[in-house]
Structure formats: structure tokens, C-alpha cells
Amino acid sequence: MTGTDVDPTPDRPESDDESRNQLTDDDALTVESALVGDDLEIGYPTSEKPVVECSRIDIPAGEVTALVGPNGSGKSTLLKSLSNHLQPETGTIRLDGDALQSFDRKTLARELGVLLQETDSLGTITVEDLAYHGRYPHRGFFDSITREDRRAVDRALELTGIEHLRDAELGQLSGGQKQLAWIAMVFAQETDVLLLDEPTTFLDVYHQFRVLETIRERNAREGVTVAVVLHDISQAARFADYLIAMRDGVLYDWGPPDEVVTEQLLADVFNVEATVQYEPELQVLPKRALPDDSR
Amino acid sequence: MSRSRAVDVDTSRSGRDGWLTGTLAAFCLVSVLVTVVAGFVQVRFGAYSMTRSEAWAGVTDPAVVLEPAVWLAFVLGGELPELSQHTIVVWDMRLPRVLVAAIAGATLAVSGAIFQAVTRNELASPFVLGVSSGAGFAVLATLVVFGGLAPFLPLFAALGGTLAFVIVYVIAWKGGTSPVRLVLAGVIVNMVFQSLQQGLFFFVDDIGVAQTAISWLTGSLTGTGWDEVRIASLPAVVAITIAIAGARQLNVLLLGEDTARALGMRVERTRLLLSSVAILAASAAIAVAGIVSFFGLVVPHIVRTVVGSDYRQLIVGCLFAGPALLVTADVGARLALSGTQLPVGVVTGLIGGPYFLYLMRTRQSMGEI
């Protein structure tokens, strides 16, 4: 497991296209990337222009990377492509060096787990049953449950701290508990890479922390690579090892939070005036919205 | 007693494999009882009524029960040896009808349950998705145009059902399918095939064929015998086996398309495979019993309210509840009016329709599972 003590970007250049390539190239010397996207253009069948264009994106192995940006900046779209839910129009995404398309679906699901933003509301399924569905890629059509499956589910429930809700039905749970149950399912998948789309949105503060701490814990214990979309920049700054800031479908900046998060970035990307404190720890204090034409 | 204890041990020891809960076991047991009682009533009463002991003697006649040759004659067709009159009435006329009702009930219920999971829609059933009317049209065309091909009815029913479902699926497809689009397309395709069915009646010269066709389109078990048992059982066994094995896939489909895909399922392929199983099951029933309305829609709902929506339990529940309900309904169809028989589809429609309206009235949400 690589710790956070690795310093990937000693000198972080400004964020134009050329320097961004430079940045990741520099970086590849020090940090190994679990997921790499090259020359990506990602769009939807309904949209004419690509929603996301990015020449290079790296999700460093064993680290927690947060994708941040305002609504509509393309961070969820990017995550969908990284998780093979949305095929890029051009470019390739590689997982440990192999293109995503070259994976068999189940093999991929054993390597890469994903929790998308819109999970369907399920009423009567129990938390434990949901967690067992995480074992789907590990089981054949006729396979019954193995000891390994049981162990993985027990561990997932323990790690998410919802063992006591094991037999509760999803419909009876609060939004935060539901989210933890879904996370237990992805954990039970036991993948090396974990992608999560806005796992804290719509949760109360307590459960936001619970979710983030649970993910952090999983990363610390097992060196799982995490990429997570967060819309709250101050939360992301405290939580992640790396930030990827996006604006209008392009990468604005990439790097450790204390280098990426600047007052300039908050103005450029989020269109807010804010003060950023670096001591004693990184803190973002948003003040007011900037007028629309100030970008 | 020993049964319920075994269930307890099972659940505590094997955790998730213990889907065989006490509720499910009790539900199945009750269903079996209902099936047996209704079956016995069916066997005993009718134009040729028997006393209870006479009927029982007929059912347990050693000349049948202990005679492999007779069984072989039933199962494979062929000459029956000399039997007493009671035994003939029981074993050659009334019991096969009960069996056909049981097979059709089980397959229709399982088919409906599968369609509801595949489309993630509570309103789905072989009827709603056009399968019934497609199969109905095919069977009607066979009866009217190629009368000699009657033994291949299930095959034609399956072809017609598949054709209708493929049309529905293709229309509903737009880079993937959605439950609502599927049902909408199903309704339209349904209407087209029903018009075709009605159109076919103009080409019927023989009043007898017309009557067969009508009783067929309303769903009837009148006059079914061992031939029908033979026709339906093989596709029924195949479909039911795959349905039970695929219950976990159905559960994962219920998690939603994106989640199923994230878990490594090839969603469209799985959907198509399970849909074919559902079509096969429905065709087996339609080929021998005609279009029994509402059955495939309502039975999974009844089972769901008792055993929950875990498909490992739901499919098994449908397997037992379907026969119980259709055999009972057929008792009503055959014996309610003395002197004449109703098509069983009339009975299921009259009971199933209002029950479904009641469900819609009392449930908060309807449409999504």
C-alpha cells in the first residue's frame, strides 16, 4: 500500500492542456495509477457535443481521489465512463494496463466496484440480502454460497457498521442507513478499485461522515483505490489524497488538496469567493457567489 | 413437526441458503392441500357422480396405481387395458384435467413472475406483454388453417408468443429498454394481435371450429386429457427448472439495470434468456388451456403478499399457488352451473379482475416492484 507520504507533484504547473499532460507524466514516475484514461471524449447519444473531453486522467492506486466540480461539470459522466457504464466516444480507459472493454463483465466486476448515484428504491429486501448480491460476480450460475462469500459479507457489514441492521428491510431504513447498506454491497464485492458517485449527497452530516470514514477505513485497511465524486469542495479537501477539479467538461486541475485548492480555483471552478486556510489544516470558507460574468 | 424443525436448523446453519422459511413451507403446504381437495372434488362430482368411497377407490385403484404398463399408456399414449368404469372416469377423464390445470397454473404463475422481474413492473404478465395474444393468434391460425397440426400446438403457441414479444421488445428498444416502454408497446401489440384473431373468425366455415376457437380464446380446460398432459409437461418442466435456477438472476435484475451491470451481469442477455423461459412457460399453458386471463398477473401478487419479493421464494410459491388456484377455479368452471361448463378463463377473469382492482385501490404504489 502506498501511503500519503508519497509526494507526486513537487512542482505543480498551471492548468492548461499541455502542462496537465506534463503533470501526469511527472506523476507516473512516483505514483502508480490504477485507472488511466487517455484522449477521452465522452458524450450521450442525445447530446451532440461531448460532455467531457480530457486528454489524460489518472486515478492513483491505493489512494483516495475525489472528483469535484460544480453541477454539470461532467464529473458523474466521467465516473460512469471510468466504471464502464458509458463507453467513451473516443479514447481508452485502462485498468491496471488493460482496456476496460477487454475485460469479461464478471471479471471486471471482481476488480472494479461502482456505486452510482441513482440507486433504485427497494422496499422489502434485507440489508444482508443486498450485501450478498455484492458476491454476484464471484458466483457462477448454479453456485451456492461459499464460506468465502459469507466472510466477505460479514466483513462488509462490520466495516460499514450496520451489522445490527442485518435483517432490517431497506424500506424501513433512513437515507443514510440505506446508503451504508449499498456501500456494504459494493464492499462485499471485494474489488481493488472502488468508484462512488456522490455517496454523501442528501445525507445528514452524521451519515456523511459515517460514509466517508467507512470508505477511508476500507482504503487504509486494504489499500483499495477509491475515486469518489463529491460536490462539497471543503469536504473533498479534508477527505481525499488527490483532487480532480473539473469545469465545463474539462480537467481544471489535479493534485493533492493543499496544492489544488486555492482561492483562484474556487473562483474559477465554483464561481464563489472564498478564503482558503492552509494552517493548521486545509479549510475552505466560502463567502459569496461571484457574479456570472466574473469567470 | 419434524418438517418445521428441519427448516429451523437449515436457516440457522446455512444463513443465506436458508431461503426455505417457515412461511414459505406453510404456504406451499396449504397450497398442496387446496390442490388435493379441489382435485378430489373435481374427480368425484360431475355428470357421473360418485360417492366419496367410490371416488377414492377409483383414485387408488391398484389396477392403475401399481401397474407400470398403465402409467406408460398414460404418459406415452397407447392402449389402456380393461379397467372398471369408476377407474376409467377418474383416471382417463377427470384426473388428467386436474393435472392440466395444475401444470397450466404453475407455468402461468411462473411466467408472470418472471416477466414482472424482467420488466421491473408489477403490471407485467404474459397477457400484458403481448405473449398471450401472439400465442393465441398462432393457435387460432393453426386450428383454422392447418387443422391437422394440432399436436404441435405448443410449438406454434411458443412461436406466436415469441414473435409478439420480439415485436414488443424491438419497439420498446431504444439503446436499452424501460419497463414503461415495454408495457406500452405490449398493450399496442396486444390490440393488433387481438384484431387479427377476430379477423380470423371470418374465415371459419365450420361452427364447431368457431366454438373451439372461442372457448380456446377465453381459456378453457373442457375436454382436456392425457394428450394435453403430454403436450405441456416437457416445456413446463424445462421452463420451471430454469426459472428456479435463475431466481438469483431475477433478484439481481430487481436491483435495477445499472446495479446489475455494475455487478457484472450482462443485463440484456439475461433479460432475453429469462424472457424466453417465461414465453416457453406461458406457451405450454396457452397450448393446452388457452388464454386464461389475469392468472399470470394476479398469482405472483398473491404469493408476493405472503412470502415477500425474494424470487427464490416467490418462484417456489408460484409453483404451488398456481396449481391450487387454477384447479380450484376449474372446479368452479366445471361444476358451478349444472348442465353446462364455463370456460375457466371466465372464472379467473371474474375473480382476478376485481381482486386486482382491490389491490390497486389499497396499495400505495403500483407499477414498480
From TrEMBL, chain A:
GO biological process: monoatomic ion transport
Enzyme class: translocase
Residues of the ABC transporter domain: 35-273
One GO CC annotation: plasma membrane
EC number: 7.6.2.8
Membrane topology: Peripheral membrane protein
SMART domains hit by this protein: AAA (SM00382)
Protein keywords: ATP-binding, Cell membrane, Ion transport, Iron, Membrane, Nucleotide-binding, Transport
GO molecular function terms noted in the UniProt entry: ABC-type vitamin B12 transporter activity; ATP binding; ATP hydrolysis activity
Pfam families: ABC_tran
Gene3D superfamilies: P-loop containing nucleotide triphosphate hydrolases
Annotated segments matching region Disordered: 1-25
InterPro entries: AAA+_ATPase, ABC_transporter-like_ATP-bd, ABC_transporter-like_CS, P-loop_NTPase, Siderophore_ABC-ATPase
Subcellular compartments: Cell membrane
Subunit and interaction comment: The complex is composed of two ATP-binding proteins (BtuD), two transmembrane proteins (BtuC) and a solute-binding protein (BtuF).
Function: Required for corrinoid utilization. Probably part of the ABC transporter complex BtuCDF involved in cobalamin (vitamin B12) import. Probably responsible for energy coupling to the transport system.
Record-given protein name: Cobalamin import ATP-binding protein BtuD
TrEMBL record, chain B:
Domain of life of the organism encoding this protein: Archaea
Signal peptide, first to last residue: none
Membrane topology: Multi-pass membrane protein
TM segment ranges: 20-43, 95-115, 127-146, 152-172, 179-196, 231-251, 272-299, 341-360
InterPro entries: ABC_BtuC-like, ABC_transptr_permease_BtuC
Keywords: Cell membrane, Membrane, Transmembrane, Transmembrane helix, Transport
GO cellular component: plasma membrane
Subcellular location: Cell membrane
Homology family: Belongs to the binding-protein-dependent transport system permease family. FecCD subfamily.
Self-association state and partner proteins as the record states: The complex is composed of two ATP-binding proteins (BtuD), two transmembrane proteins (BtuC) and a solute-binding protein (BtuF).
Role of this protein: Required for corrinoid utilization. Probably part of the ABC transporter complex BtuCDF involved in cobalamin (vitamin B12) import. Probably involved in the translocation of the substrate across the membrane.
Name of protein: Cobalamin import system permease protein BtuC
